[in-house]
Amino acid sequence: MEPIISEFDKTIGITGGAGFIGSHVVRLFVKKYPQYRIVNIDALTYAGNLENTKDIESYPNYIFERADICDEEKINGLFTRYGFNAIIHLAAESHVDRSIMDPLAFVKTNVLGTGILLNACRRHWQPDVANKLFYHVSTDEVYGSLGTTGFFTEETPYDPRSPYSASKASSDHLVMAYHHTYRLPVVMSNCSNNYGSHHFPEKLIPLMINNIINRKPLPVYGKGENVRDWLWVEDHAIAIDTIFHKGKVGEKYNVGGFNEWKNIDLVYLLCRIMDQKLNRTVGESEKLITFVKDRAGHDLRYAIDATKINQILGWKPSLQFEEGLAKTVDWYLENQEWVNHVTSGQYQQYYTEQYNKR
Ligand code: NAD
Ligand code: DAU
Fewer CB within 10 Å: N-end or C-end of the chain? Predict the structure, then answer.
């Protein structure tokens, strides 16, 4: 492959850019930084969808490369071709329930895939790593589960409890090990639950929205007492932009919404919003709520203390949850074609396997 001579200030490879959060990050960077060339590197698994980036595909600073991060030869080829100055790494298997069904898929992509990317950075960037950066996007789930009080800080010891979180914790450790051992310039963030447009309907909020639209049962695990801290996905993308440009090499930053909700309360809120938007009788959607067998090893509560990113880098969430949820519902109602595409075929098989046993 011939290397491409670039007229851009820098070339950033963003992995997982066809997924939920990745597509928002790619969109933000492509539009905000015309001086950067953005290469979206994605294998297009069931969770990756080029419809997510359709609005930016004609931008002159945007390129898509279909590649599996576990394919070492292909990844090294992309480094040679594009001469990346930075990588923002979001590609991952991301759904906890799927990690319970098939843990090794998570070990492969999240651990081995991250290792292959780190090795490529080492190989192509050393000995001169000045102005290079490997940004690893991770999750608050690496910290384990909280009781009814307390928050995760950057110093909270790792205690992952699902195959997904264990694989993300392993990748976090690898990233820091490459920093300490090989002086690779890295930065990392650990974020709470995101919500917003283009969210694959296997996750709580988009699954409930889709089921309410279709008057299907709303499967709440256990008693719905588990608590998550929800953040508008575009605020996460802004946090990533902030950390990418202002974060300190070798450091990690927690990102969260200061917005804790019990699952059952969130589902009630969604039902109320949707009854109104769908012109249904008040209380109609709530009748669809069905309590089902709990998730194995279900973490009780996540809550992020985002003081560090707030005080040092000046980031804070911009949107109130009720407003963000209403915007999210609107997006799904206006983008039923997107939903129909992603829920055809393979999704039906997953849904049957995941929910019919409960
Ligand atoms: P997603 O499942 O929506 O998207 C993942 C993307 O990665 C998809 O486009 C998929 O095609 C791609 N991908 C998967 N395996 C790949 C491989 N082997 N090679 C190349 N591409 C591959 O995930 P998401 O929810 O957007 O999460 C993105 C990142 O953010 C993940 O690393 C996740 O752990 C982290 N994160 C997610 C949340 C959340 O609430 N969704 C919160 C905190 C952190
Ligand atoms: O905290 C960050 C993490 O948030 C990310 O790292 C993960 O990639 C992301 O998937 C998310 O993990 P969760 O397991 O918290 O998200 P999920 O949407 O799957 O579930 C949210 C809560 O809702 C959880 O307590 C389980 C519950 N749930 C989920 C589904 C899919 C239900 O009650 N019913 C469901 O059908």
Answer: N
The whole-model pTM stands at 0.98
102 is a domain residue: yes
Pocket of ligand 2 (CB under 6 A): 94-96, 139-141, 192-193, 203-204, 207, 219-221, 226, 228, 263, 295, 302
Looking up residue 39, the CATH number of its domain turns out to be: 3.40.50.720
The number of domains in the chain is: 1
Give per-residue pLDDT as tens, 106-153.
999 999 999 999 999 999 999 989 999 999 999 999 999 999 999 999
Residue range of the domain that includes 240: 10-195+232-258+302-319+348-355
Task: Point out which residues pair with 230 in neighbouring strands.
Answer: 193
Q: How far is the CA of 196 from the centre of ligand 1 (A)?
A: 15
**Å from CA of 109 to ligand 1 middle:** 10
Cα distances from 108 to residues 18, 46, 136, 186, 254, in angstroms, run 19, 16, 17, 21, 25
Q: Is 93 part of any domain?
A: yes
Enumerate the active-site residues: 140-141, 164
Percent of the residues in the chain that have a pLDDT greater than 90, as a whole number = 96
Say if 38 falls within a structural domain: yes
**Cβ of 257 below 6 Å from ligand 1:** no
pLDDT at 21 over 90: yes
